[in-house]
Amino acid sequence: MLKLYTDTQFLTETHRKEVFPLLFDLHFKPDERLAHYYEVVESIAACDIIVMPIDYTRFIKHKKAFDALLKASKTNHKPLWIYTAGDFGFTNYIKNSYTFRLGGFDSTLSDTNFIMPAFINDPYVAQMPNSFSVLKKTKKPSIGFVGHAQSGFLKYLKEGVGHLKVGVIRALHRVLVDAQVFYPSSVKRAGYLSALLKDNRIDSHFILRNKYRAGVTSEAEKQKSMIEFYENIFNNAYTFCSRGVGNFSVRFYETLAMGRIPILLNTDCRLPLHTTIDWKTHCVIIEEAEVHKMPAHILAFHEALSSADFENIQHNNREIWKTKLMRHAYFIAIHDVFIAKLEVHE
């Protein structure tokens, strides 16, 4: 069991949306599945790890509390866990600290940065009327996609303006986020999907939308749009997944949760638990520098699978989401990683 110490005065409704996800599950909605792995203690001396209670960029504004935990970590030689929220995240260089974030660029991230999955509800419970089942292998790989993908100069310009706005806000120190180069994700996505559509060796089923989540506003429209999204994943063995504003794809995790096979365009991504999960056995990973060879990579992956392998990978993807990427399961896996780290230092 890992014993955690934090500043509990921030575990309130006021900060509910900013709380470190693990602390949320231990405090606001206690998850019994985590009770054997984590305990929040009242004494720094008794803890294994000190945890910043809320998103780093919010917590640093509470200087007295922030400095107190920072000093406690240094004085007592305790590892410090930091949560940085949002599409970009923020890299810090605090010694003996570990940062939990959604995305970032693998080539620039140290080993102390841990990528969290996008924590989603089980679509077979929350959205889909049917239960999980595997698809049989077909001669052509069947690829699905439902989402924001739009080409054209005006769209490129709009995304460029959005990028500049973030840059200005960052330069004015109004927000703490990592800098990144301009990446017009929806424009690039439209181009990549267009190339797949033109290849008659691939069975493509794409629904391209001009706005994020189709721009729907009513609850009925949202539900209809969401069901359409998940049905597309369910009916196709493969789903194309590429980054959005931040360098990660929520669709990647939604595809795994559905027990289907992501085609991940690798834009220098780091995936969760990358040192313990062999991600190449769960998905098609295509380096962006080789995107022009994407159909060939997909076909090679598909043709190398026997009918049994094809069904097994679907079972395995559903299982790895349930046992490693669901919220409680991810933090149980993190528990095991840090127990091993602590034992090394003893």
Write structural notes for this entry.
The chain has helices at 21-27, 56-59, 63-76, 123-126, 153-171, 185-197, 219-235, 250-257, 294-304, 307-325, 327-345, and strands spanning 2-6, 38-40, 49-51, 80-83, 97-101, 113-115, 142-148, 203-209, 238-241, 261-266, 284-287. It is an alpha/beta fold and 346 residues long. Helix 1 links the parallel strand 1 and strand 2 (38-40). Helix 10 crosses helix 11. The protein is globular and about 65 Å long. The mean pLDDT is 94.
Protein topology:
Elements lengths: L1 E5 L14 H7 L10 E3 L8 E3 L4 H4 L3 H14 L3 E4 L13 E5 L11 E3 L7 H4 L15 E7 L4 H19 L13 H13 L5 E7 L9 H17 L2 E4 L8 H8 L3 E6 L17 E4 L6 H11 L2 H19 L1 H19 L1
Parallel strand pairs: 1-2, 1-3, 3-4, 4-5, 5-6, 7-8, 7-9, 9-10, 10-11
Helix pairs in contact: 10-11
Helix-strand string: EHEEHHEEEHEHHEHEHEEHHH
Supply Rg: 21 Å
* Helical stretch tally: 11
State which percent range the strand residues make up.
Answer: 5-15%
Number of strands: 11
Quick take:
This protein has helices spanning 21-27, 56-59, 63-76, 123-126, 153-171, 185-197, 219-235, 250-257, 294-304, 307-325, 327-345; strands at residues 2-6, 38-40, 49-51, 80-83, 97-101, 113-115, 142-148, 203-209, 238-241, 261-266, 284-287.
